[in-house]
């Protein structure tokens, strides 16, 4: 009798825990969760707002030669086609669509909270074994975020697996192409420094996206190190027509350090991009001086740049000079 | 004793009348010399342990890995289905499911743990006595 009631209460507790676990699991759709929070946190702009995404895609640019530059793959002899002008335009248009698809920014998510759930404590099982038992649910229809992965420690406690253990075990049973079980040594700080000296930021970021989940600590860490290095040396052009440019701009705008990027854009005569960057800054920091002044004066285009240079920037002189020269050249060319 | 007639042609399950046999969820041994690896498998109990099975429901690696973990995989949905169809589980599978929290704890797991604790205590006492003698 005692055994059956024990059974019943254990089974009940498992099912209760299962329901609780279902309610507490993180969301599957990254974009949906972020946009829900943006309605709560108005007026500060979030990463997934349509306006922000629009600005970021326009700033990233669409250099077809860079997006479709030759990557290492199986060597095949080149194909030559004879096309009319219309066909050529059609092919270019298709290439642009494909490039847009390749240039989708990876999601920027808040860091995931660590899992510390203990399901059951069993002191009578202490010393049953020297190793832990890790139990994974290999049902194919369950999304990876909701999969049950539990660990039975040698001390007898039954707990949920930590995020690192989860990622490793899901890679063991449902391997993803390109992902290794233990993260490769390129992501260590010393090795990253070597890679950055060789200007291979894009390769590192591509590997990082494949290896880590978007809301893990290591992913954010590697991204931050890359962005810091790029900003320190001013190598913005390395990421210009890649899908990481949006992430880079977002990071800089949130840190209020867009001066280097702005100067770089002005040096390359990308006036429109510079204006969009300042607009993004005003969207994300609506309480800043430049944003409030822009609001009162209803400024557009070059005036935005001037206001920003006046109030927020450290390199005010250079920005004003660049804006003046641009206006002069425009006036001269219009004659 | 029911005389079982096991036919050699495994063509169709529906036409056969399986006398006295039943489905079991058990460990099928695989791997290499000095390196066992078990697959958790639903099979008829009279079939050879490592040969034909109805469905694989998981795996169990008895040797711990670098992180001192013994990896066990279970397809809980299908295990529930087979138990609903009347499958029996063998002792090691029942123990593993108990440790996973899917079944209640197997009494022999608890007994084994208690025996180990007692053995560890007696060993400690003996070591203390030896040290005292020295």
UniProtKB/TrEMBL annotation, chain A:
<dbReference type="GO" id="GO:0005763">
    <property type="term" value="C:mitochondrial small ribosomal subunit"/>
</dbReference>
<protein>
    <submittedName>
        <fullName>28S ribosomal protein S22, mitochondrial-like</fullName>
    </submittedName>
</protein>
<dbReference type="Pfam" id="PF10245">
    <property type="entry name" value="MRP-S22"/>
</dbReference>
<dbReference type="InterPro" id="IPR019374">
    <property type="entry name" value="Ribosomal_mS22"/>
</dbReference>
<dbReference type="GO" id="GO:0003735">
    <property type="term" value="F:structural constituent of ribosome"/>
</dbReference>
Automatic annotation (TrEMBL), chain B:
<keyword id="KW-0689">Ribosomal protein</keyword>
<protein>
    <recommendedName>
        <fullName>Small ribosomal subunit protein bS16m</fullName>
    </recommendedName>
</protein>
<dbReference type="GO" id="GO:0005763">
    <property type="term" value="C:mitochondrial small ribosomal subunit"/>
</dbReference>
<dbReference type="InterPro" id="IPR000307">
    <property type="entry name" value="Ribosomal_bS16"/>
</dbReference>
<dbReference type="InterPro" id="IPR023803">
    <property type="entry name" value="Ribosomal_bS16_dom_sf"/>
</dbReference>
<dbReference type="GO" id="GO:0005743">
    <property type="term" value="C:mitochondrial inner membrane"/>
</dbReference>
<dbReference type="Pfam" id="PF00886">
    <property type="entry name" value="Ribosomal_S16"/>
</dbReference>
<dbReference type="GO" id="GO:0003735">
    <property type="term" value="F:structural constituent of ribosome"/>
</dbReference>
<comment type="similarity">
    <text>Belongs to the bacterial ribosomal protein bS16 family.</text>
</comment>
<keyword id="KW-0687">Ribonucleoprotein</keyword>
<dbReference type="GO" id="GO:0032543">
    <property type="term" value="P:mitochondrial translation"/>
</dbReference>
<keyword id="KW-0496">Mitochondrion</keyword>
């Amino acid at each position: 009798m005692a055994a059956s009631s024990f059974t019943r209460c254990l089974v009940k507790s498992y099912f209760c825990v299962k329901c609780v676990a279902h309610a507490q699991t993180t969301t599957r759709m990254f974009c949906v969760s972020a946009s829900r929070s943006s309605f709560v946190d108005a007026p500060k702009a979030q990463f997934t707002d349509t306006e922000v995404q629009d600005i970021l895609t326009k700033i990233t640019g669409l250099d077809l030669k860079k997006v479709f530059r030759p990557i290492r793959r199986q060597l095949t002899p080149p194909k030559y086609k004879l096309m009319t002008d219309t066909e050529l335009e059609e092919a270019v248009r298709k290439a642009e669509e494909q490039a847009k698809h390749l240039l989708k920014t990876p999601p920027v998510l808040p860091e995931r909270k660590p899992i510390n759930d203990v399901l059951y404590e069993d002191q009578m099982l202490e010393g049953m074994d020297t190793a832990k038992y890790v139990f994974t649910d290999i049902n194919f229809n369950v999304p990876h975020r909701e999969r049950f992965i539990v660990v039975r420690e040698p001390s007898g406690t039954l707990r949920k697996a930590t995020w690192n253990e989860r990622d490793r075990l899901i890679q063991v049973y449902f391997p993803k192409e390109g992902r290794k079980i233990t993260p490769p040594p390129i992501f260590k700080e010393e090795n990253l420094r070597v890679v950055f000296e060789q200007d291979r930021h894009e390769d590192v970021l591509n590997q990082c996206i494949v290896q880590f989940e978007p809301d893990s600590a290591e992913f954010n860490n590697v991204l931050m190190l890359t962005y810091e290095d790029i900003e320190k040396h001013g190598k913005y052009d390395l990421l210009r027509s890649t899908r990481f440019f949006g992430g880079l701009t977002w990071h800089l705008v949130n840190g209020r350090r867009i001066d280097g990027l702005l100067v770089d854009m002005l040096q390359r005569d990308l006036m429109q991009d510079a204006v969009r960057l300042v607009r993004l800054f005003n969207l994300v920091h609506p309480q800043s001086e430049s944003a409030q002044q822009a609001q009162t004066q209803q400024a557009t285009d070059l005036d935005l740049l001037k206001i920003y240079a006046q109030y927020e920037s450290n390199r005010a002189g250079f920005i004003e000079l660049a804006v003046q020269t641009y206006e002069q050249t425009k006036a001269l060319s219009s004659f | 004793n029911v005389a079982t007639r096991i036919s050699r042609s495994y063509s169709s399950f529906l036409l056969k009348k399986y006398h006295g046999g039943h489905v079991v969820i058990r460990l099928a041994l695989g791997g290499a010399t000095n390196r066992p690896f078990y697959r958790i498998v639903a099979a008829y109990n009279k079939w050879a342990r490592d040969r034909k099975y109805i469905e694989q429901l998981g795996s169990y690696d008895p040797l711990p890995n670098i992180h001192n973990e013994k990896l066990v995989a279970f397809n809980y949905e299908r295990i529930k289905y087979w138990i609903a169809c009347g499958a029996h589980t063998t002792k090691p599978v029942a123990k593993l499911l108990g440790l996973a929290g899917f079944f209640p704890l197997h009494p022999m797991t608890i007994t084994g743990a208690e025996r180990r604790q007692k053995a560890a205590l007696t060993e400690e006492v003996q070591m203390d006595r030896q040290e005292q003698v020295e």
